[in-house]
Design a protein that fits this description.
globular; two-stranded antiparallel ribbon; Alpha-Beta Plaits
């Protein structure tokens, strides 16, 4: 089966966090716990010449370091390339969180375990139409910033990544960026 991945259009994102709200509402998580975007500025500290937002959703890497770091096998790469979590196996050691170079895994103090994006895996498997299969973050983004690529090519890993993005050679993230001409 093909590897699923993301396409992220940097120039369209305004940082409204609609994706965060949609993710948390659709997945029944506390919206105050985490954010899906990190703000970066060019020209820091002064003068700030541009700013952009980078997603912290899981990149569903071709070679996910989080899976190798988990001593309990709580993270699994599914046949479609999506990295999912088996919460019943997670012991909250946080090794996967520390191994992820993109900050996509977060510790949830309320349950004593980590949490991560699974590209709304249940929707991917159970959805009847293409819209039903779309992750909540991508479905609700008014600016069409985040798009699912059904057959992501490994050669496109990290293409167009902004300067703040971790080196894609390490894990080969299934994400490509568009609109990075501001970094030239």
């Amino acid at each position: 089966m093909a590897q699923k991945g993301w396409e992220y259009i940097l120039d369209n994102c305004t940082g409204c966090h609609g994706c965060t709200i949609a993710c948390k509402a659709g997945r029944f998580r506390d919206p105050e716990q985490s954010k899906m975007l990190r703000r970066f500025a060019i020209g820091v500290p002064k003068p700030v010449t541009a700013e952009y937002f980078v997603p912290t959703a899981c990149n569903h890497c071709f070679e996910p370091s989080c899976i190798a770091a988990c001593p309990k096998g709580a993270l699994v790469k599914e046949d479609n390339g999506i990295v999912t979590q088996r919460l019943d196996r997670c012991v909250g050691c946080r090794r996967c969180e520390w191994a992820c170079p993109y900050g996509a895994i977060e510790y949830d103090d309320d349950v004593g375990k980590v949490t991560k994006c699974d590209m709304c895996y249940d929707r991917q498997v159970d959805g009847l139409t293409d819209e039903d299969k779309t992750p909540w973050c991508a479905l609700t983004c008014a600016a069409f910033v985040l798009n699912v690529i059904e057959d992501f090519e490994e050669a496109d890993s990290g293409d167009g990544a902004p300067p703040s993005f971790a080196d894609e050679a390490f894990t080969k993230p299934a994400i490509r960026f568009i609109g990075t001409d501001t970094f030239a």
